[in-house]
Write a structure and sequence with these properties.
By secondary structure, the protein is α/β, with parallel strands linked by helices. It has helices at 16-21, 47-53, 71-84, 104-116, 125-135, 175-188, 203-206, 210-215, 229-238, 253-261, 273-276, 293-305, 314-339; strands at 7-11, 27-28, 59-62, 87-92, 119-122, 140-141, 160-164, 192-198, 220-224, 241-243, 264-268, 281-283, 285-286, 290-291. α1 links the parallel β1 (7-11) and β2 (27-28). α3 (71-84) runs parallel beside α4 and α6 (175-188) crosses α12. The longest helix is centred in the last third of the chain and has 26 residues, at 314-339.
């Protein structure tokens, strides 16, 4: 008789991170989101859907995408999970939700989830320590996999520093403060600063003075649509340093993409960015003390004057991914066996 097929429902259904860590012999149970609305809430977060389809899965693995639930709805959902008998695994990517202006809602989400989970995973030792202290849960630490393959023929401009403001989401530092501090550090190190922002925001209303500072020659400003995958990789390969302008946060896939292509990262002291990669250069910033402007300037200057870091070794990334898949396979097998009827 053949080995039992492991049926896993993930929330969200698909994401590059999930594609990297899920074991190849796992059956990923849908439904998949529609092409028209790929970020629609997962039906597995609907208590009625979950109760009706529990028999179709062995493991429910929650990563992210549950922002639409209120804390009370999350608590009620975890009660349905308990009654259903399905094994719940949670990977904590964010200890501070980058889309929330305060931490209370996400803290309550995590308290409910971690109280119901059979196994908790997270991406760094620092995050695991924080989870143990705040939620009294032990974690399995699984490193963030590589997600980007460098493109051939893309040149890097030495000492070009990039600050990508994206769509000015909630966890962004004051844009003018961060770009002026980064520009000062770049120029002091013999380089220059490029600032990117998506064209779906009213830049003049949201950040008055940014265009004027660019027009005055303080930095280069590029306003454009969101990058596609190859466009993002090409952008990261073209700069020497990428500054994460985060007011708060935990981990970063952007940082891992920089690591893949050999672009140094300057990151804030909030969160656990430095635990992801030893070559990160830190600047002072957290929600209590705020941005330390001189430390950002100094961090950028130090980053542009150091030798470039090497691109992540593809063989090492491949073995890392294989190991992550083995860990996930072991976790799924263990929790499913614990929940199986005698």
């Amino acid at each position: 008789m053949g080995a039992r097929v492991m049926r896993v429902a993930t929330v969200p259904f698909a994401h590059p991170y999930l594609d990297a860590v899920l074991p190849p012999d796992v059956v990923r149970v849908g439904p998949a989101p529609s092409v028209e609305d790929p970020w629609a809430p997962s039906p597995w977060l609907d208590p009625r859907y979950l109760a009706a389809h529990t028999a179709e899965i062995d493991v429910l693995h929650l990563h992210f995408g549950f922002d639409g639930l209120t804390p009370d709805e999350m608590l009620a959902w975890t009660e349905v999970v308990r009654r259903s008998g399905v094994a719940l695994v949670v990977t904590v990517h964010d200890l501070r939700n980058p889309h929330h202006s305060t931490r209370e809602r996400h803290d309550r989400h995590l308290a409910a989830l971690l109280g119901a989970a059979e196994v908790v995973l997270t991406l760094t030792e620092g995050a695991a320590d924080e989870i143990a202290e705040r939620f009294q849960r032990s974690c399995i630490v699984v490193a963030h996999p590589g997600l980007v393959t460098p493109l051939p023929g893309i040149g890097r401009e030495p000492r070009l520093v990039g600050v990508h403001l994206k769509s000015l989401r909630t966890n962004l530092l004051d844009p003018l403060d961060v770009v002026r501090a980064a520009a000062s550090g770049a120029v002091s190190g013999g380089g220059r600063l490029r600032v990117d922002v998506h064209d779906d925001v009213d830049l003049d209303q949201r950040v008055p003075g940014l265009r004027q500072a660019a027009d005055a020659g303080e930095f280069e400003l590029a306003v454009h649509p969101r990058f596609g995958d190859d466009e993002l990789t090409a952008y990261l390969q073209s700069i020497a340093v990428s500054v994460l302008p985060h007011r708060f946060g935990t981990h970063s896939g952007w940082l891992e993409a920089c690591r893949d292509v050999g672009t140094r990262v300057v990151a804030p002291t909030c969160g656990h960015y430095a635990d992801q990669w030893e070559d990160v250069v830190l600047y002072g910033n957290d929600e209590v003390r705020g941005l330390d402007v001189p430390s950002l300037t100094g961090a950028v200057m130090a980053a542009v004057t150091r030798p470039w870091p090497a691109k992540a070794d593809p063989a090492w990334r491949a073995e890392q991914k294989a190991q992550l898949r083995r860990v996930h396979a072991h976790v799924y097998s263990r929790v499913a066996a614990d929940r199986a009827p005698a």
